Amino acid sequence: MSGRFISFEGIDGAGKSTHLEWYAERLREAGRDVLLTREPGGTGLAEALRALLLDEPMDAQTELLLMFAARRDHLERRLRPALAAGTWVVCDRFTDSTLAYQGAGRGGSVKRIHVLADWVHGDLWPDRTYLFDLPAEEALRRRTLARPADRFEAEDLAFFERVRAGYQAQAAAEPERFVVIDAAQDIDRIRSLLAADCARIR
Fold first, then answer.
1. CB-count exposure of residue 77 (10 Å: 0-12, 13-18, 19+)
2. Residues 6+ away with beta carbon under 8 Å from 160
3. For residue 71, what is the domain's CATH number?
């Protein structure tokens, strides 16, 4: 029996990371085998590429290619084997992030991103994507209260407004996959919504 692939998305500061472990634990309590992972990252090689992506200056095309290189290694070493074994995968970001950040945010070619996505993972997309939606100004306020900014978090407000708009366009295009969550709500309300939707996934 194949597992299910769940992704969490949103601009930096939207608060999705607050709920990842909690969501995975709810699945475990329901008797599911769960792999909790992230992108870029999830393997030794992908984590090394993540460090470069977050800290090293590079042009937009190099950034895009490194994202997909990390994704390919992650898919082949962890995601595909886990799903084939019946494990539920909960992933912090996937290709929707690339479309939002490198596409809408950086102004990269969406067509090129889809070509790379088709090459790297074909028709494997998440079964459910939770999009934590928050105004860019509020997300910026939250980020300034957290750890020092990485290369993406240090981008200006206009960049994150473009990224947010990119996410919203994706959610509108695929309403059967995306669940849009108002990330301005309190934690308990968000978790209630997540729990209710999780119970519907089969």
1. middle
2. 11, 12, 105, 136, 139, 140
3. 3.40.50.300
Q: Assign 196 a pLDDT band (cuts: 50, 70, 90).
A: very high
Question: How many domains is the chain partitioned into structurally?
Answer: 1
CA dist 168 and 17 (Å) reads 19
Three-state secondary structure call for residue 130? strand
- Looking at residue 142, what is its pLDDT? 85
If one compares 83 and 147, the residue with the highest pLDDT of the two is: 83
Distance between CA atoms of residues 150 and 143, nearest Å: 11
Structure tokens at 34: 């769960």
Q: What are phi and psi of 12, to 5 degrees?
A: -60, 130
For Cα atoms 54, 48, 101, give the angle at the middle one, nearest 5 degrees: 35
